[in-house]
Amino acid sequence: MTAAQVVQSEWTKIRSVASTVWTLSLAVVVTVALGMLISALSSNEFDNMSTKDRLSFDPTFISFAGMSLGQLAMIVFGVLVVSNEYSTGMIRTSLAAVPQRGTFLFSKIAVATALALAVGLVTSFVAFFLGQAMLGSHRAEIGDPHVLRAVIGGGVYMTLIAVFSMGVAAMLRSPMLSLGILMPFFFLISNILGNVDATKKIGRYLPDQAGSKIMQVITPIDDDTPYGPWGGLGIMALWVIAVLVGGYVLLKRRDA
Amino acid sequence: MIEAVGLTKRYGDKTAVYNLSFQVRPGAVTGFLGPNGSGKSTTMRMILGLDNPTAGQVTIGGYPYPKLPNAPRQVGALLDAKAVHGGRSARNHLLSLAQLSGIPARRVDEVLGVVGLQDVARRRSKGFSLGMGQRLGIAAALLGDPQVLLFDEPVNGLDPEGILWVRNLMKALAAEGRTVFVSSHLMSEMALTADHLIVIGRGQLLADMSIKDFISANSADFARVRTPDSEPQLREKLTSALTEAGGHVLPEQDGALRITGLPLPRISDIAHDADVRLWELSPHQASLEEAYMRMTQGAVDYRSTIDQKEGLMQPLPPGAQPPMPVPGQGQPDWYAPPPPQQGGQPFAMPQGQGPYAGAGQPQPGPYGAPSAPGADGSNPYAQPAPAAPQAPQQPPAPADLTKPEDAR
User: Fold this and answer.
1) Inter-chain CB proximity A1 and B45 less than 8 Å
2) Residue boundaries of the structural domains of chain A
3) What is the pLDDT of residue B369?
4) CA distances from B228 to B72, B235, B236, B265, B360 (A)
5) Residue scoring higher pLDDT (B204 or B372)
6) pTM reported for the whole predicted model
7) Given CA atoms A142, A147, A149, A155 in this order, what sign does their dihedral have?
8) How many of the other CB atoms lie within 10 Å of CB of B222?
9) Looking at the partner chain, which of A5, A100, A256 has a beta carbon nearest the beta carbon of B102?
10) How much is the pLDDT for B324?
């Protein structure tokens, strides 16, 4: 059995369930709409801002503001892709058909990752252009320095969030448990840790805080983050690799 | 050919399967029987490499499953009919499995036709009944046209027509020289389908024999003979005469004799020669279900108790009679004869007790009280009229016993 056959099969699986379409389209709509809204509000606020805030004003990053909410739909997508197998019991049929568990897991994740990347990039570009349209005179251009990196990085960020969720779901198996941990973590805990001074130094090594650096074009003035955009993405990638290895080892060892 | 050697599986301190060794040969339907929780499904999962054995190994065609080249084309399995994503259509479910092993989409439509699901192929499997789910599971097992097929409880939830279809399908697959391994908890179903039986209880092998041997050992016809109650010496006389003639005599609770190994006319002749009058000479047949339950009785994990309904009972109005419980119902052993007593013979060898068993009786009670293993009168079917008040209008025991798992 070749990996290509498993990939083809996983593609059939992923395209034949409604949750794929729902979660991914929700991710696009929420990210773009919220990004547009916040861009429009920021544009109106600009004149009332302090000089410091004006100097830190990052139109590219603002147009991605919707991602904090949109990534939750990506998390649901990533969790469901993997944990569906367990909650339905399909995993036994799948693993009986593909005894090479590593091939099975990574083919599944590869297919879902490719799909998430395509959707993520589309989201990122649409959010950027529509967000900039809302910003009016404060807009950034795609040709400006580092902007293209930030826009592509936004797509990659969403993808990595989804892959991270897949790895967590591969470890935990249960969709409820996975979502119950990931949702509050990314929506609340990470934000709280990142905004309280005492925990800020730890918070910025969390996957979403580190990864979102890639979408910044203008570094805030008093920013003392010890890594740059690529360093941040690297930290996030390390997290993703860690959970994938964890998921793989557990799948390999565990009884299905 | 499936071969298990010393297969053992422990979950924590619970041993699900212990030291199981058996072979499943091609060209025959092998039934895999055991009570709920006896380790059937665990064994099936170990065969498919889903669970790792704690000790021992199981191979298919000489390979452990994960090493089997192109496994889905060689082995097809139905483990759990409900193990399907409810939002996916039957056809897409099978298509995703077919693509794994390079089976063309045409074959998917073929097997959908074989199991009779072609009309609902594009509907989400969420709305499928248990029987339709079983058909879909069987379709998945047939997909790769495999030489080895495993079915875990394939007739659960099927209608009589579906059961007949599965039965014929199994036989046809075996007749084509394939290895067919079917688990079930229904002895009666296996008696009709299987050629060979493997029975386990509490994860251990209880029997590994052909169905023919099982039937001849366990459902051998027997005759019931009664001599006049007033003359116990006639009973003794007849017993020794029959034993001498090679018969196997077991006393029953109500004073009758159960005789195996002698045809009815011969029993009549012997009685005549011994000058013993008979009040009854009747042919009987022990059911396979009964034999199976006797075999597994000691190994049943989940046994029902009487529903006390404590706290739910309305206080009875003064003077009213509390409802009488149905005698026997709900008591652990009411449905089956007692297990062989200590030192008794295994169920499958009724003759194993030796020629003295009948005459001497293992524990000779002065009144001919029930003492012989597995042979007293508590078979609810074989009760003659005098015993009837003990268990009036009992529903057939096997059906009652198997209901809970059947309804899953």
Assistant:
1) no
2) 3-253
3) 42
4) 67, 8, 12, 19, 20
5) B204
6) 0.77
7) negative
8) 23
9) A5
10) 57
